Amino acid sequence: xxxxxxxxxxxxGFSKAVFPDIMPTVKELAPCxxxxxxxxxxxxxxxxxxxxxxxxYLSLAQPWKTPAEALNDEALFIKVANRLADYxxxxxxxxxxxxxxxxxxxxxxxxxxxxVPVISLNYDTIIERLLKRSDSEASTRDGWPxxxxxxxxxxxxxxxxxxxxxxxxxxxxxxxxxxxGSINWFYSGAEGWPGEQVYFRxxxxxxxxxxxxxxxxxxxxxxxxxVKDKIPLxxxxxxxxxxxxxxxxxxxxxSDARKE
Length: 260
Known about the structure:
- This protein is α/β, with parallel strands linked by helices.
- It has one domain (about 10-260).
- The chain is about 40% helix and about 10% strand.
- The chain has nine helices and seven strands, in the order βααααβααββββαβαα.
- The longest helix has 29 residues, at about 65-95.
- The protein is globular.
- The N and C termini lie close together (about 10 Å).
- The mean pLDDT is about 85.
């Protein structure tokens, strides 16, 4: 962990500040869920306006739910997680077609240079993408951190599901502690997954819709194949996260945040 006395905690207001007219706050995610027919019915229609509350309800095995209702809610949770991840990815795709404020680029570079740890409550990859853009704008720089350095977790790049390990040299940088998961982190969606490997898709373009895919149709096919049995790791922002805490990887996130 960094020995810095500084600590930055980010919520959705940060992404909104970087791209005010494009990136949504949590409440502004609601419209993308209203197209799901099941969410317009009871008992969900009064929850859909608050994605946090909806995710909470769907993820918890409440005692009043019948077994059939609990299984239905698990299925809906997966649908909602996919829909939210897709919507956020499309927002990011649109956002990075615009210029990035100078203060945002300066902030990311300063975080790296001062090794300032960052606790993020966001699902998006704005920080990662700003870091990637800083790298491309300073091509003479020797060694620049990537997601593996930022996350500091035993996450595997998606590409390693089909190829051997060839890890790049580690670069010391700030630490990005994403307590609620990320749209570029993937797992099976299973309720009990204590030893499951969590994968991440490297941020290597200006758009999450193109990351890891490359320009060829073969690259697109490979990307589709690699995530075919996975869903985005989206953790509801609630105190009761038992189904997610069963894996040590996620527990490490919160342990590290506590240390910072």
